[in-house]
Amino acid sequence: MHKPAGTQSAAMKEAIAFIYSPDNMQQVAFGSTDIKLSTGEILTVPGSFRYSGLGRSKFLEAAELAAKGDLKQLGALDVVSEVCGRMQFDQLRVIVRDLAQLCPEACGGMLDAVLQHVDAVEIHIKRDLKEHLNHADASACVWHCRNHAHADPESCDCSRPAVCEHEHTIGCAECALLSALQHDMRIMLHAAELQLRRALPPQQTGELVVGSYVTFTDEAGVAHVSTIREVIAAAAGATADTAPAASFMVDVGFEGALRLAPAAALTPRPSEPRLEKITQLRELARRSCEKLDTYYSHMVRAAHEAATMSRLLDELDDDEALVVADWKMKFLMSCFREAMSDFFGKRGMPWHGCMLIRKPLRFERAKYGEGEFVSTSTP
Fold first, then answer.
1. Stretch (H or E) spanning 35
2. Structural domain includes residue 129
């Protein structure tokens, strides 16, 4: 450790004493670290620190953040919770704020209530759901019934249980918050669209040009909300019997893929840029809600898996071992596109591994505590 040029020794000693004072630092159970100074002296310091100088507001802010969100760094350990959970809750918050900004008269009053609703659903699924699945009447609740959550409705997967034959006679207000949140999103989107459509000027009939809002009907009869991006003039010498007067390039689908369409398949529709934005937000909200349903099912499965693991460990005999097989690292990327920094930041080996868990042998019991297990990881 070298002293920076121009730094007084007294000031350096005072700063070090302040940093390592018990009022600002507390040692926790992560061991210690030896730091060798330039003089050869070895200074033993805690391996981890916890600062206690946070003010009340900063502490509450940090506690709320820890309660609501999954740590992004743990996304590689649980891709479903990262992609279908944390990212979708953040997406819904962005959608709600965008709607309030687009239509403050219709959605501004709902902003705080819906954001609080998003927070409540996130905290419940992440923190409280597993406790709801363990009560005595769990099978009678459609939200808590494990068989209902894991069953295959079409009975095509033999590894999954059959559909419930019993009736679900009770409900859960807290678990139903997810459905209520999806209903709130539909209400906000409908209110915003209704307000903007009331303010639309009368539709003007005229020729189709670049930027015209149209409804494109494809060969299968499916209607697409589209916008004309390019006008393609008819070839020279073409007649009405051989080719139409003009064709148009229109965007089809939410991603904006272009497709050639004849004029006969296009119908003008009244719209304006803010209404087009709401159409995009509605599709984003639909996708997020679908992924949140997947996230809820995933958390139910995870809670059931943890309970099964605990039961198997309790029933484990001295001559038995529990084998847990899983991927040490995913072979494929968790997302369609992945930044290079995220790729190189991963740790692990791309192979399948097994972990064997057993009770300590007779000669090992002095080394391990009461109720502890021995685990061995193999490739």
1. strand 32-36
2. yes
